[in-house]
Amino acid sequence: MLPQAGPLRWRNVVDTPAVLIDLDVVERNIRRCQEQCDKLGVTVRPHIKTHKLPLLAHAQLAAGAVGITAQKIGEAEVMADAGIDDILITYNIVGERKLGRLRRLADRCRLSVVADSASVIEGLARAFANARSEIGVLVECDTGMQRCGVLTPEEALKLARLISDTPGLRFAGVMTYPAPGQGNAASEWLDDAARLIREAGIETQTVSGGGTPDLYAMKRHASLTEYRPGSYIYNDRSLVAAGACGVEDCALTVLTTVISSPARGRTIVDAGTKVLTSDLFGMSGYGMVLERADCSVISLNEEHGRIEYASEQAPVVGELLRIVPNHACVVSNMVDSVHLVRGEYYVRAEPVAARGQIT
Ligand SMILES: Cc1ncc(COP(=O)(O)O)c(C=O)c1O
């Protein structure tokens, strides 16, 4: 159960710039995603990189998620400290220091990780030889994102064999992060890989896909067992632009104050790259102003956001404006705490516990 609002309105409490999280919207987004995944017959393993908050990870688990996904060991350590006991790290872990931390983390939770080469698997094998706890390893597959991942189902089979034959490692399945818009095609790729691996007599427990852009466009697939959405909990301008959600589904906004309206058609707010980030995410402009559809966030300096507007009515110095950022996940990483709200009402400030965990 997420906390309820008190009697105060956030506009009378919060100093700017600040990040607001509307828990009414968060709860709706969590419920809708869980219902969709139930319909698809897959379990939910949300990626916590979007919110970095143990409070919301627990809310996702309470709604039915089977565990969480993290990108970095540091994020996973913070979540394990908060009592979360089933974590998948979707990142190649390379280097002795990180492998040592991974081994220690495996003693504290049910841990799995991904690998896309024999070198990564050899590192895991060294770290987990004679370890107290084994680690699950999924083969990461490149189904079109052109990031990490093996390029063919045959290569996936080769690595599945290597993992299965390595003491201390448990072959846990295959995973991918699809290119946006390619969720269904990516799952067909995984179907082929899983079939090949199973035909070779290797048990393939998990077939894991993900990505918010395709969440509500997914069909049922023969082998997909798990979905890892992240951004769905907050949504953002990029997802509105992709048609994956509406503006009313955006839970994270950046609250700003108008600090100058120096010329006709131009106004300046107190949020720049240090809050909104310079992530264009393939779009033009740096966010969507909720209160003023005629406003465009044209450019940013560190502490200044330059807005241009079409109407005759200039934003007034001191006025509050909320901006839906292009990409919510990166904004979460910019602030020590976010302000939880419900509609107009204030709940409390919440420390972003897994902020800045880049190793
Ligand atoms: C490996 C992996 N899984 C899942 C996700 C969640 O994706 P989304 O935020 O599109 O839901 C990401 C996001 O970057 C990712 O990299």
Automatic annotation (TrEMBL):
Q: Name one Pfam family in it.
A: D-ser_dehydrat
Please indicate if the UniProt record lists Transcription regulation as a keyword: no
SMART domains noted in UniProt: D-ser_dehydrat
One of its GO biological process terms is: D-serine catabolic process
Q: Which source organism does the UniProt entry give?
A: Aminobacter anthyllidis
Q: One GO MF term, please?
A: D-serine ammonia-lyase activity
Q: Would you say which domain of life the source belongs to? A: Bacteria
Positions of the D-serine dehydratase-like domain: 251-342
Per UniProt, the keywords (alphabetical) are: Lyase
Indicate what this protein is called per its UniProt record.
D-TA family PLP-dependent enzyme
As for family, the record states: Belongs to the DSD1 family.
